[in-house]
Structure formats: structure tokens, C-alpha cells
Amino acid sequence: MPLNRTLSNRPEIPHPERGENECRVFIIAGEASGDLHASMFIRALKDLAPQIEVSGIGGPGMIREGMHPLFPASDLAVVGLVEILGHLGPIIKAYRRTVRYLKDHRPRLLVLVDYPEFNMLVARQAKKLGIPVFYYITPQVWAWRQGRVKKLRKLVDKMAVILPFEQDFLRGKGLDATFVGHPLMDVVHTETGREKFRSLNGIPQDASLVGLLPGSRHSEVNRLLPLMLQTACLVAKKKKNARFVLPLAPSVDMSSLPVEQINAAGVTIITGKNYDAMGACDVLLLASGTVALEAAILNIPMVVTYKVSPITYMLGKALIKIPYVSLTNLVAGKEVVPEILQHQAVPRTLCNAVLNLLDPAVNARVKKRLSDVKKALGSPGAAARAASLALSYLSPSRKTR
Predict the structure, then answer these.
(1) pTM reported for the whole predicted model
(2) 127-170 tens-digit pLDDT
(3) Span 194-376: which CATH code?
């Protein structure tokens, strides 16, 4: 999850001078999900060692947990890998300021959270300074660009991984990796039960409720929501008691939605109660991504779909060497839920997959398999376990040069 926002020319925020007994950690996270997981890590670290001072780069969640920001949050934003090329100036500034901070303040530990393109550059400088590097939520080298394994082995002292298969993969490559569980286990839960949610939103208790989740990015919603609405219309024709909800990600602009098509498909828009909406559904039709794991944790059968430009798809097939695109199936090690992608992702095919999962026997069978996926993700407390591992690099005997 790369990070970038136009950096102003304002001077960086001053930091207090380091005392002899001070224990300082520097942490770098990327976009909203990185900020969420990093903020939970900071909270756990401070619970275990209240004397630790945390500085770094991140978002409002990390600041609320007591991180002293190297840059104001308003100076940071997130873009994809390709977009970085158009923002090299601000990113170079951010990199130089970070390296200068590491040289001037010599933190006891550098903690990296995802965001590999920037973080690996910083890790190289940290190692030159003798600062231990701890990586929480590591680059997905098991999926693509496995050449990065050599760099990780050289630059990273310890890795806390969040997918169960990552530990064996990375250890097999000579990396010190420990599976700590998935942080979503601490945040994915419902507040309103299935019956109450349906009652509050005028949805019959005996309805076959289908959730449509087209993603959080504008481009994903533009590409997938029309497809999902067409699918909903087909499902409604074949399943007379079918109802549909559209839980919107906070990043989605309501004014950009095709309201007429949404109304024509009989879809109810849900804002701010996404997990409650998902948990009240019988089946979810969703974009490939983290939401597939969220659905698995909530134990809701799903159809996973995705479409990109033909060029991007061809490049992805050439570069990404994994048997499935959904994290649900990757964690299971087999196809637990259907994946309908690219040219196969048409309304009729998606409709048939949804109807199949609405069959009570099929639905129950998939739920049982999803329960196994949830168990594989570990118990709640991933951030606390990661923080405990990180503390081993903060003992007095581990001082930087």
C-alpha cells in the first residue's frame, strides 16, 4: 500500500531531544488499512511498555494512539504503484526527511507496516545505521516479485506475518517470520443481529438477502457496480423473495452512484453499518480484496469477482503466480468460494453462482468451510503478539551504533 501526498514546504515537526534512557521507535504505515493496523500495534506496544516513545509516518489513528508524526497528516496520501511515478518529487522529499530523522535520532527500532516500495528503501538506510528493522504485514512476495525475498533477507531482522501460509513460505526462504494472526479478527464483528438489521431496514426476515460490495476505489465501483446491478436484476427475476443491499465503503462518493439503476434493481444503500449489513446477508457478491476475508470471518458465503483492463489482466497473469485471487481461497488452500473474473464476469454467470449459493444445502456446506478459514486466521490479538515480538529488539543490549 504505497503512500504519497503532496508534501508542503513547511518545516518538519520538531522532536524532543533524546535522553540517555529514552526508548524510541519509528514506524511507517501507508493508507487507511495500514493506519488502522499500525494504530492497533502502537496501542499494544504502549500497553506492554508505556515508556516507549513512538514517532513516524502515518494517519490519524496512529496519532491518536500517541505517535509523534514526522509529517502532518495533511501532507500524506496514498496512490498506487503506477501513480507514484507522477509524484517522485514529494516522495523523494519524504524519503530524505525520514533518512535524516533516522540519522539524527537513532531510534531503537524501525517498524514497517506494508507499503513496500517506500519502506524497503528506508530499511536499507536503517541497516546502514545499525537500526534493527521489524516488518509487520509484509510484502506479498509469495504472490509476485519473489526476487524481493533476497532484499528482505538482507534488510529485515524480524517479520510478523498475518496470513498462515506466509510463515512457512518465508521461513523456507531463510527469513525470520512468525505468524501472529490476522488483525481483522479484532475489528470484524456485527453490532446488530441479523433479525434486527432486517427489521430496521424494512427487509423481510424470510427474504434471500444478497449484499453487493463493488470495492472502495472509485475505479472499482465504476467498473463493478453496474455489473452487480445487472446481476441483481437477473437474480430478482428468478428468486422472487430476493432482496439486495449495497454497503458503501466510506471512501465512495454517494453523488457518483447511478441512483436510477440502483433504485431500478431494488437495492437498499447502507452507510456506516457495513459489517451489520454483511452479517445479515445470505450471500455476498463482492470484489476481490480484503473484504473477502471480512466475509469469511462473518461466515457469509460469497461470490468473488473482478474486472480490470485487458492489458492489466494480461500483465497480472504473467507476473502473479498464485492459484486463486481471493484471500479466502488462498488461506483455505482450495476453492471454497467461486471466483468469476474478467471475461467470465458477466451477469448471467454471476447470477447462476449467486443462486447456487442461495440453495440451503450449498449455503450450509460453504459456511462450514468458511469456519475453517476463520480458524486458520488465528485468534484475536495479532497486534499484541506483533508488539511482543518487536519488544525483543528494544532490550538495553540492542543499542544502535
Answers:
(1) 0.86
(2) 999 999 999 999 888 877 778 899 999 999 999 999 999 999 99
(3) 3.40.50.2000
CA–CA gap between residue 112 and residue 123 (Å, rounded): 8
- φ, ψ of residue 270 to 5 degrees: the values are -120, 130
> What span, in angstroms and rounded, lies between the C-alpha atoms of 173 and 175?
6
> What are the residue boundaries of the structural domains of the chain, listed by start?
24-181+381-391, 194-376
Among candidate residues 377, 401, 400, the one with its CA nearest the CA of residue 108: 400
What mean pLDDT value characterizes the chain? 87
Work out the burial of residue 335: count CB atoms within 10 Å of its CB; fewer than 13 is exposed, 13-18 middle, 19 or more buried.
middle
> How far apart are the C-alpha atoms of 247 and 119, rounded to whole Å?
33
**Structural contact between residues 208 and 242, judged by C-beta atoms closer than 8 angstroms:** yes
Q: Which three cell numbers stand for residue 86?
A: 507522477
What pLDDT is stored for residue 253 in this prediction? 83
Q: Do 287 and 213 meet the contact criterion of CB atoms below 8 Å apart? A: yes
- The Cα–Cα gap between 318 and 153 comes to 25
**% of the chain at pLDDT higher than 70:** 87
Give dist(CA 96, CA 282) in Å, integer: 50
- Homologous superfamily, domain 24-181+381-391: Glycogen Phosphorylase B; (3.40.50.2000)
Q: Parallel, antiparallel, or unpaired: how do β-strands 109-113 and 133-136 relate?
A: parallel
Q: What's the pLDDT at 11? A: 38
Helix ranges (H only) for 52-109 are 60-64, 88-105
